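Allow me, if you will, to draw on your knowledge of protein folds for a short while. I have a record of one protein: its chain in single-letter code and its fold written as discrete structure tokens. Could you please explain, in whatever detail you think fit, how the structure tokens follow from the sequence? The record follows directly beneath this note:
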Amino acid sequence: MSDRSEPHGSHRDSGSPSPRPASPPARADTRDRSPSPLRATDSGPSRRRSPPRPFRGNGPGRRRTPPPQPTDEEKQAAAKAEYNRLLDARSGGVYVPPARLRALQAQVQDKTSKEYQRMAWEALKKSINGMVNKATAGNMRQIINELFGENLIRGRGLLVQSLVKAQYASLPFTPVYACIAACINSKLPAVGELLLRRLLLRFRKGFRRNDKTVCRSATTFIAHLVNTQVADEMIAAQMLMLLLHNPTDDSVEIAVNLTREVGNYMETMNPTILVVVFDRFHHILNEADIDKRTQYAIEVLFQNRKDQFKDHPAIRDDLDLIEEEDQIKHFLELNGKFEDEATLNIFRYDEHWEDNEKEYAKLRREILNESDSEDGSGDSGSDSGSDSGSDDDSSSDEEDAEQKAIDIKDRTNADLVSLRRTIYLTIQSSMNADEAVHKLLAVDLPEDRETELPSMVVECCSQEKTYSKFFGLIGERLAKLNRRWTTMFEEAFTKYYETIHRYETNKLRNIACFFGHLLASDAIGWYVLSAIHLNEEETTSASRIFIKILFQEMSEALGMPKLSARFRGDNAQNLGSSLDGLFPVDDARHLRFSINYFTSIGMGVLTEEMRERLQNLPKPALPAPPAAGSDRSRSRSRSYSRSYHSRSPSPNAPPAAVKKGKQPAAAALTQRRGGRSVSRSLSRSVSRSPSRSPVRGARGNRRRSPSVSRSPSRSPAPTKRVSTDAAGPSGTRRRRRSGSVSSAGSGAPPKKHPRSDKYRA
């Protein structure tokens, strides 16, 4: 073609020999230059687009500038955005190639970012699911080590979810999954407790919905957890009682399956529960209206019990991987309130991701090192030809690790807490005292922790609302079994009596009843009463309440005659001075306190000897009397009489009136009227307190007490004759006073003074 159409209406002559002028600099045009069929149809056949011209210029203006390279932050942001987009698409059902996800995961390296933690969470979930699904009895040890390699603290919800789903899908593999749970529970008890909680909630939900499949899978898993001692056998007993309370065909069938799985374990550990359950089965078989198929299942169960469940062992030999001392048992009430913690199955952003990963890495090294040393203990002699230097280094490292472990154990007391928990659960899971003692003796007690057993028995007893004789029988059995336990309970009596003021009244009552039972049954020696000093100074209100309840418990167990006989005669002589603090001997004050105390609590019979002893005690000597004439004398009596001058009576006066003493006693002076003379006599006796010996006081020192007695004289006063001696220099008459000292309270009349010769005329 000679003529070519150019865009924008530009034409050039192809046949002109003139050289082509230099083209202008290329424009930065990013439009698509490829031919478009739409444009061809629009322009018609005459406006066809010519192919692009080849680049012929070599100048610098014809080169394209390279695009700017993204930074690392931009690459990370782009990878995160693409990863989130693909995850959202996959959650919506879009298929995402795994290779593309792995490529994006390799680009995200920021561990503090949410995208990186989400990728790690997905990897953890996939890893746990894969290991649980491929677990068998043959590769159990390898699977356990691989599981501990993952962060099971962060992924405990994922592990429990995988175990429950896998067990629900394949019931014959339940012993395998129970073994995994037992191994993880021995190092991480939170995992075992979470699994048990979710299974109980799953069983309760299935029971309410009448879902036989869910109930059967949950009860089977719980039964194998009981066999591996992850769950307490009382949980299985509660489930059996619930299933057999209102028997139906489905509930009885589930109960038969549960009993078959835990029967071998129950026969060994708690046969009482099995007896109760089979009695219920026997009642259902005879009286309940159930299907023949269910009746046949019950009969087969009775035959299995007769064969001692030999076809259904508690734990298979190839799955018995946990030592008895490493097992941690959990107990939960079937109707208790607890949550399944479903949020543990969902990803959550962790601000302290790296710190938590480092902490679990330390824990993982400790766990795997322990397991490696246990599994490969027989390989210790394979390196006998190694250098002595390496042996010394390894031994020093082992010693350092052991010393570090000891230090950690001393600071946290984890072993003590675990031991006390084991003792508590053992006691609470026992049906009677004999079974509890049998289980407690099977507990592995360290030599320095043996005193924890009596202490836990007393503490468990104190926690009850009311005193239960069950704990007293446990203490009695243990104390009578071995002298070692007797000594420990006697030391516990002294310890709890000294610290009894720290306990509440209810706990104090239970502790007193417990030791009262031990004393009444002669499980501990009565010389432990030497710790009690019954007096006002060495007792408190709490200790007095303790002694009261202690003696009341012994009185109820022995009876008052036997109890009083224990503190008399040969028995008291055998105890020696152990009862001196309880029943004082010499101190009268303490004797009175003890007598009053036992009388107030209704045990006055015990105080008869003390009363006799108190009467026979010598009386204390009286203090020396004060000196005569002392102003501080507290016992003083004075009796004196006053007689005033009088004249002889007139002959007209009646003598009877004089003899009868009808004169008024309050007259102060003698009055002479009409030739008559009235004689008046005043007698007063003043005393303060009784006095054993008369004390003669001075005349000028008179002290009168408020009690004054006055009595008129019955005989007429003698007549006085005024003499020259009676008159003073001033011509006044002096009063004749006579004073006498007598003991107060004698009641004798005042002493009469003899008259002188001059008054006899």
Notes: The first helix runs from residue 37 to 43.
